[in-house]
Amino acid sequence: xxxxxxxxxxxxxxxxxxxxxxxxxxxxxxxxxxxxxxxxxxxxxxxxxxxxxxxxxxxxxxxxxxxxxxxxxxxxxxxxxxxxxxxxxxxxxxxxxxxxxxxxxxxxxxxxxxxxxxxxxxxxxxxxxxxxxxxxxxxxxxxxxxxxxxxxxxxxxxxxxxxxxxxxxxxxxxxxxxxxxxxxxxxxxxxxxxxxxxxxxxxxxxxx
Length: 208
What we know:
Layout: H1 2-11, E1 17-21, H2 24-38, E2 46-48, H3 49-59, E3 63-65, H4 67-83, H5 97-112, H6 117-128, H7 132-150, E4 153-155, H8 159-169, E5 180-183, H9 191-202, E6 206-207
Parallel strand pairs: 1-2, 1-5, 3-4, 5-6
Helix pairs in contact: 1-2, 3-8, 4-5, 4-7, 6-7, 8-9
């Protein structure tokens, strides 16, 4: 695939062409192979998907937070919801830090799986009916997602999901000039990665 990628990137040098790899190590290996095939690399035609997310989020003016900061924001969100009378079973005054940790883990998994808050609420309602605890869990997820976005922040697990959402709206920054994107070395796509490819294709980018 590297030889075909080399041909595509030669015809579409950066920023019109881009190879996307699953990791930084894979990107280095790809560039080494590309250098051998072409005798030179035009611009910087390859990024790991993590680097693509970081650059795009920077273009959007968003700041990344780590898991501890995300857990703290979830805790503050829950306290605010309790003060507003929107939490009872999960109210911080009635539960311990283990509840926040468990919700943080669940939210991270949902974001990794590109599950929207509304979709999660609908799915739990269909599977379990309207149960107060499940409704409060869904409410915390929805409120946290709304709050983190309003603050211009993004958590680690939400980066790929947010990248896919951003690409659906408009190609930001340098990606506006993108014509061809080669995804190389991905054995199994995560839901967010699949959504990124779908969004690029919908934006008119030739995805290989």
